[in-house]
Design a protein that fits this description.
528 residues, alpha/beta, Arc Repressor Mutant, subunit A, five-stranded parallel β-sheet, three-stranded antiparallel β-sheet
Amino acid sequence: MSTDRDNANAARSWPFEEARKLRDRLDGKTPDKGYVLFETGYGPSGLPHIGTFGEVVRTTMVRKAFAEISDIPTRLFAFSDDMDGLRKVPDNIPNKDMVTEHLGKPLTTIPDPFGTHESFGHHNNARLQAFLDEFGFEYEFQSSTECYKSGRFDSALLNMLTHYDEVMKVILPTLGEERRATYSPFLPICPKTGVVLQVPMISRDLDAGTIVYRDEDGKTQEVPVTGGHCKLQWKADWAMRWSALAVDYEMSGKDLIESVKLSSRICRILGSAPPEGFTYELFLDENGEKISKSRGNGLSVEEWLTYAPPESLSLFMFNSPRKAKRLHFDVIPRQVDDYLTHLAKFNEQDPAARLDNPVWHIHGGKPPAADGFVTFGLLLNLASVCNTEDKSILWGFITRYAPNATPETAPILDRLIGYAASYYRDFVKPAKTYRAPSDMERAAMEDLVTVLEALPDDADAEAIQTDIYEVGKRHPFENLRDWFKTLYEVLLGQSQGPRFGSFVALYGKNESIALINRVLAGKNPAAD
């Protein structure tokens, strides 16, 4: 008889594959630090974005899968590179002129333009934590500034200084000629200006743990590499952090493949094993072009959550992380309905199959009970034919279709109705384009009215769908898809939709007949 662990060891979904890879790397043994460390990184010069969500949710999925196959304790660090010097003033902040005066300084020493925290870095760190907390992630926040200034990184920084020449041999061949002339992995924090300096090193003293550089005035300065007096260039910094914290697992995007290789080489020079990794693909916009924050051609977490539940976004992140995917508003309805389908299947599956169901990973093994009443696509079409954004009107139709459904007994459905109303308002309604039926299509629709009138009032969606199919077969459509496309374009003002039998069952047989007759009479099908 198979056990839960046997099932987890046999699960084929990618988080379990990653978890087993990590367990094998550890040879099933607890690391010296007493736990397995997962890490995600965040650059706090901007606010958390959809990529931040994707990295944390995917890492969490692997962490949960690891807990199913191993008893080794785990921790997840959400690490903020808040000691980085600010290179560019973001466009979406107030008091830009004030921030401009502090360019080049660590984010945690720049005054907060929002006036709510002790620094710009602290403000964005707070936003990151609020963002992660909103989704219920289990993590421990880590600040680069705190790690540098508290001495937590001191030993690793001195180790970097010891291996300076070896590190330089790895990095310099990757740089252009001009950059090679000034490069050093150590970036002193100028004692006079507080700016993170990118200056060449004149000398270093291993015994004293210091470096010497020439400042803007031409004078030589000697500073310790410890205690927050210096920070590292980011590729060296990434490697040092892996070594100092003994990170076991960290994901990164396809655009960082070469950086991962470089940082891994440096990490080995420091005497540590680089973490197990996972490379995920980047998102594309609706035109198939790479999403860029500066271009603003992406979709934000806030925008997604205006029109769909967070579980649907988690599903989008779960599906095929190694494939480039278009991230735009049109993908939302499909993701919602796919989530509902997976949720409905969960309780019907055996324990082994459940582990490969996306909702197991989305909900950490404990998905909620499915409402199982109406799909998101149907709700959108109901809103469309009713021409309404009013939840109460939509609920009025739903309770006739599913008398046992109420906002209290069907909380998932209640949330979906609100999302559907918003999505209809902003995307469906503005894009509606009705057309008149051709003579052949008109004859088919008249036939459909006769068929619907003959159906009993309590006919279910399957019976209605079967009869609609038969009507289409009786008329010279090239294929049945064209028949249903006709119904969508003429009655709903769109080229596609859900199963029409389900729509009729939800909207009501008599209401559907009235809608078709309205069109046959040459009137606008949109409800008054």
